[in-house]
Amino acid sequence: MIKIIGTIALLAGAIMLVVGVLGIFGSLSTGLSPWAFAILGVIFFFAGTSLLKNRKDTDAINADK
Length: 65
Fold this sequence. Notes:
Helices cover 68% and strands 0% of the residues. It has 65 residues and is mostly helical.
């Protein structure tokens, strides 16, 4: 489950980062501020990469009693 969330965050961050950079340099116009897309893209990109790098994806429940 963690790897799925990390992958979604990574892809969303990459897309938002590209849209933000294109908006900042003027080749793409959106209804929102391009700086918001760029900042949120960086946040989501790094969050996704850290989730994929540092978490183990297990659905097993340890019932050691």
